[in-house]
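This week, look over our next protein:
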Amino acid sequence: MSQEEAEGLIDATPSGMAHLSGTGPPGTVCEQCSFYGFHMQHPNSCYRYYLMVSEHGAAFPAETPSCKYFAPRNMGLATAEAQPAVTVEDLDW
C-alpha cells in the first residue's frame, strides 16, 4: 500500500471506528456488522472500539465502509443486543 492510499484510508475513517474504513470485506458497511450500534444508548457507535479503548467512541454513519474487524450480524438476530462473544484474548493489542 502506498503512502497516498494509506492517507486516503485514514482520511475516510471516522472518529470512533475500531480500524481503518474500507479494510473489511468488499461491499460491506458498518450497519451490517455485529459490532455496530450496541445497546440503546449507543446506536451508531462501534462496540469493538469500546472494547479496545474502554470508552465510547463518536457516532458515525451506518453506511461507512467496514473495517478489518467486520463480523456479520447473526441472521434473524440483527439487533443492537446481538453482539458476538469477545474476550480479551481476541483483541489485537
The chain has one domain: 3-77. The longest helix spans residues 3-12. Residues 1 and 29 are 21 Å apart (CA to CA). The mean pLDDT is 84.
